[in-house]
């Protein structure tokens, strides 16, 4: 705590900011500590930041006149010491500011909205013996008379004239006590579930990890098991062990897997309230959750990426399910990877981490095979269920057989769906492309509709409520759409455009929508199976978390007979009645200009295929124009190892991760020339410094235009830095940014992505 004359170091949520020093106003003397959020003046404005240190005034240059910080915000809330230190490391590693890292890590952000203070006041026993000022006496009498029991500050202030300072003095003199308010109760836990007898592989895995949990000690385990092989059961046993010994556990899952089903599975095992943490919680909900965690009411948190930082006291285990998921990497600053930050967090705490996946990321598998992580395999599915057989349907053959029909539903897929409808089972159809058609083409001059702001081809969407006006020939290529029935949308900036009546270049009026998205498949399905209950689930249909949960209910109840969706349905769903999985087009992501395109396609296909055959035998049909492509063929054969070996050899030849580490630097400006100049200048400095000994072995690639050359009107130039280790690259980058020759123009922006997952 502060002593008179001390100075607060405050960091703000701004790029490249250093900690700023502020003096502490008298009423806050002795009240502030590192981790508190405060409002500070900065230039002519105000901002909210986090106190990271308190220093003696004598240690600060006496020549500098300090401005006082204004006030504390989010009273009663503080970021823990542990998270302060973790974010310090993050800032170094991810080349962001400490403030950016802290703002991401703080459960309620740096919010300065006045959150309800969750403390109550009551008179202490023997308050009558304390000498009080007349005003204090009124306050004490009010509290003593209160029919409502202890009062929060707001109610008290409404009843008598008082301030927090007065109450603090009364607390110090022993007249008043502060007690935590009751927190709202969580939902009642579902009926208890009996743990099953473990399978031999599960037992082996559990016994391998248990000692690290019991000790505890830091170690990373990679649990590789096909979908439905019982990984979650292993997590549950480990968490049980931690909780039995008074510890707490954190389990990260992809946002989309945070269904009531997942949560119920955990809470029915432990029969206690579980913290569910995701980005759609309101700040108030987060604040309540934070308090329950800090007070030890909640000892298990399940959450998506941002849950990485929940300040669970006595954290004894971190589980990261579906560790290969790219959504664990944040795409805006700070561009951290939840898996890697969690591993660092566990390392500092000396506790184990369990990573689970059916298709481990190449980074993690590489670490496991090189002995950095420990590899544990679950080879069988419980109840003797086999992995579903996968049948590849060559779409080239389908089109050849009947060239008049450019259908996206092959005869094989159609009859497989019909069979399910007749048997009262569910079909799950997957297409990772939303909207109606992929782009709009002028057949005469080959013009393609593009976004004005981005270098992105626009997707065609059908207006809802319309588009029921159906051509007679059901699955026939629809030909021109009526302009009033459709609109164009940029999937990058969400900008909307009218559907043109004619080509703006040559005036051609019969424009062609090319390719199929989920909307179009939905229409085709409605025509082929007019009686069926069809549910489409993608970003356009989901309606936020509530909409998703509603749709999910229709799936679980079996009401929805055909479920069609994007990658929203590829993950975490456990639907017993799904006996058919159809991949409408496997090739969608294959030719994205990113070296991970094949890996992503492979693992997505494996994930989708895993949605069936979990409790009933199932079947998977994969439609593809490329049945011989390794990613498609090997996914159909469930051959992770074969694919890994092949793809890793290619990565080694091309010097890509995980053999090497990358840092992507993007310079963007509305003016192409300025973006190019900045990128060239920076690469020049990097190359010059890179020749010096201590930066040896770092390759500077580029600058080149980024694969998506323009986003939101800004031209993007890309530099890639490659070396054996990330910190070496970051050191060089920092040196370059501190070089006297480096200057960033006011209109140019610099984005640094350490260990990038997305190179577009
Ligand atoms: P994963 O997490 O690998 O996808 P789950 O843990 O969800 O797999 O297990 C798949 C199904 O098998 C679940 O319905 C689960 O209840 C069941 N299960 C898991 N372990 C066992 C076991 N040892 N005995 C019987 N059933 C099990
Ligand atoms: Zn756009």
Q: What is the topological layout?
A:
Elements: E1 6-12, E2 20-23, E3 36-42, E4 45-56, E5 71-78, H1 81-94, H2 98-105, E6 119-123, H3 134-145, E7 151-152, H4 153-159, H5 164-172, E8 176-180, H6 200-214, E9 220-225, H7 231-244, E10 248-252, H8 260-270, E11 275-277, H9 283-294, E12 300-303, E13 315-321, H10 338-349, E14 353-357, H11 362-369, E15 374-378, E16 390-394, H12 395-401, H13 411-423, E17 426-430, E18 439-441, E19 459-462, E20 486-489, E21 496-498, E22 512-514, H14 518-528, E23 534-537, H15 544-556, E24 562-565, E25 578-583, H16 597-609, E26 619-624, H17 630-636, H18 640-654, E27 661-669, H19 672-690, E28 699-711, E29 714-723, H20 726-737, E30 749-754
Parallel strand pairs: 9-14, 9-15, 10-12, 10-13, 11-12, 13-14, 16-26, 17-24, 17-25, 23-24, 25-26
Antiparallel strand pairs: 1-2, 1-4, 3-4, 3-5, 6-7, 6-8, 18-22, 19-20, 20-21, 27-29, 27-30, 28-29
Helix pairs in contact: 1-2, 6-7, 16-17, 19-20
Bound molecules: adenosine-5'-diphosphate (ADP) and zinc ion.
């Amino acid at each position: 705590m502060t002593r008179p004359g001390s100075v607060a170091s405050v960091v703000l949520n701004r790029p490249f900011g250093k900690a700023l020093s502020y003096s502490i106003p008298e009423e806050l003397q002795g009240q502030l500590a590192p981790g508190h959020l405060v409002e500070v003046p900065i230039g002519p404005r105000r901002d909210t930041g986090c106190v990271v240190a308190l220093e003696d005034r004598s240690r600060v240059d006496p020549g500098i006149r300090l401005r006082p910080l204004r006030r504390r915000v989010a009273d009663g809330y503080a970021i823990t010491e542990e998270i302060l230190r973790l974010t310090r490391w993050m800032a170094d590693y991810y080349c962001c500011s400490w403030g950016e890292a802290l703002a991401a890590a703080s459960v309620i952000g740096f919010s300065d909205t006045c959150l309800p203070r969750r403390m109550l006041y009551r008179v202490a026993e023997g308050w009558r013996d304390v000498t009080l000022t007349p005003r204090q006496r009124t306050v004490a009498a009010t509290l003593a008379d209160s029919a409502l029991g202890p009062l929060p500050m707001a109610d008290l202030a409404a009843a008598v004239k008082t301030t927090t300072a007065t109450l603090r003095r009364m607390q110090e003199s022993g007249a008043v006590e502060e007690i935590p308010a009751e927190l709202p109760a969580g939902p009642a836990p579902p009926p208890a579930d009996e743990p099953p007898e473990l399978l031999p592989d599960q037992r082996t895995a559990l016994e391998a990890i248990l000692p690290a949990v019991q000790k505890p000690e830091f170690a990373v385990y990679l649990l590789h098991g096909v979908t439905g092989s019982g990984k979650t059961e292993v997590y549950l046993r480990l968490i049980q062990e931690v909780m039995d010994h008074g510890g707490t556990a954190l389990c990260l899952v992809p946002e989309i897997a945070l269904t009531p089903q997942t949560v119920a599975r955990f809470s029915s095992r432990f029969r206690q309230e579980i913290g569910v943490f995701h980005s759609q919680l309101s700040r108030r909900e987060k604040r309540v959750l934070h308090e329950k965690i800090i007070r030890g009411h909640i000892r298990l948190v399940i959450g998506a990426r941002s849950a990485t930082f929940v300040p669970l006291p006595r954290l004894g285990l971190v589980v990261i399910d579906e560790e290969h998921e790219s959504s664990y990497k944040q795409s805006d600053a700070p561009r951290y990877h939840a898996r890697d930050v969690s591993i660092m967090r566990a390392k500092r705490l000396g506790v184990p981490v369990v990573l689970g996946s059916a298709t481990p990321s190449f980074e993690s598998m590489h670490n496991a095979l090189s002995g950095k992580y420990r590899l544990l395999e679950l080879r069988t599915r419980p109840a003797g269920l086999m992995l579903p057989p996968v049948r590849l349907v060559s779409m080239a053959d389908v089109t050849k057989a009947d060239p008049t029909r450019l259908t996206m539903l092959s005869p094989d897929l159609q009859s497989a769906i019909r069979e399910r409808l007749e048997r009262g089972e569910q079909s799950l159809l997957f297409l990772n492309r939303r909207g109606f058609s992929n782009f709009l083409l002028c057949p005469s001059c080959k013009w393609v509709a593009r976004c004005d702001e981005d270098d992105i081809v626009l997707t065609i969407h059908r207006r809802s409520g319309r588009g029921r006006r159906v051509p007679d020939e059901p699955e026939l290529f629809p030909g021109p759409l009526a302009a009033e029935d459709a609109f164009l949308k940029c999937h990058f900036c969400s900008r909307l455009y009218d559907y043109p009546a004619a080509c703006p270049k040559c005036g051609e009026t019969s424009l062609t929508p090319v390719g199929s998205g989920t909307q179009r498949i939905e229409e085709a399905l409605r025509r082929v199976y007019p009686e069926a209950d069809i549910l489409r689930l993608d970003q356009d249909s989901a309606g936020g978390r509530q909409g998703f949960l509603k749709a999910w209910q229709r799936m679980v109840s079996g009401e929805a007979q055909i479920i069609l969706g994007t990658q929203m349905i590829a993950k975490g769903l456990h639907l017993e009645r799904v006996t058919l999985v159809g991949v409408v087009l496997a090739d969608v992501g294959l030719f994205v200009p990113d070296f991970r395109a094949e890996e992503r396609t492979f693992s997505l296909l494996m994930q989708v295929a895993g949605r069936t055959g979990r409790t009933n035998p199932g079947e998977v049909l994969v439609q593809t124009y490329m049945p011989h492509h390794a990613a498609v063929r090997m996914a159909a054969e469930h051959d992770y190892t074969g694919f890994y070996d092949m793809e890793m050899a290619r990565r080694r030849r091309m010097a890509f991760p995980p053999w090497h580490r990358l840092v992507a630097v993007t310079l963007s400006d509305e003016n192409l020339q300025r973006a190019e100049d900045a990128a060239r200048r920076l690469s020049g400095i990097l190359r010059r410094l890179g020749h010096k000994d201590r930066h040896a072995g770092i390759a500077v690639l580029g600058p080149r235009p980024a694969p998506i050359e323009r986003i939101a009107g800004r031209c993007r130039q890309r530099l890639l830095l490659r070396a054996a280790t990330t910190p070496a690259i970051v050191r060089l980058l920092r040196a370059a940014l501190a070089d006297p020759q480096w200057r960033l123009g006011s209109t140019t922006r610099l984005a640094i992505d350490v260990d990038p997952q997305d190179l577009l």
